[in-house]
Design brief:
alpha+beta, 149 residues, five-stranded antiparallel sheet, single chain, globular, 39% helix
Length: 149
């Protein structure tokens, strides 16, 4: 059985609130907060509450595949701490895109109902494109490059 967008949104909101703790209630998460250091290191991005609110405002005005939305949000929540805020977009084909363009480095992830792809282009000319569940080492290296840029 496929989730509806409302069911996906409720699940994402619940898991997001658990992951970012008090920040979801409007308080800023900081290194000195009561959030577990494990969660802070893994995924408590300072930009997450703002991005979540932005997505929540934009989704009702777009046709978004709930599976793609859930996959994109789950992937974002698993990023290492210190990532800069991404740009999130919604395609006419109901896909969800997540993108960073920093210091000449570009990382683009696109999520659809049945797969996800990553494209990375580095300032030095290196580039690759792969499905998200293949090329884990390359994807990790690209994420770290974006985080440092």
């Amino acid at each position: 059985m496929t989730e509806t967008l409302t069911e996906t949104w409720a699940r994402v909101a619940t898991s997001t609130a658990a992951s970012v703790g008090a920040s979801f209630a409007g308080e800023e998460v900081s290194a000195g907060s009561q959030v577990s250091s494990l969660l802070w290191d893994r995924n408590a991005q300072s930009w997450w509450p703002d991005l979540f609110d932005e997505i929540r405002r934009r989704v009702p005005h777009r046709e978004v595949n709930p599976v793609a939305l859930a996959a994109a949000v789950d992937w974002l929540m698993d990023l290492p701490s210190g990532m800069p805020k991404p740009t999130v977009g919604f395609g006419d084909d109901r896909t969800v895109s997540v993108e960073w363009d920093r210091g000449g480095n570009v990382l683009h992830a696109m999520f659809s109902s049945d797969d996800a792809e990553i494209y990375f282009a580095a300032q030095n000319g290196d580039e690759f494109e792969t499905v998200i569940d293949a090329g884990a080492d390359k994807i990790r290296a690209a994420i770290l490059t974006i985080r440092r840029s």
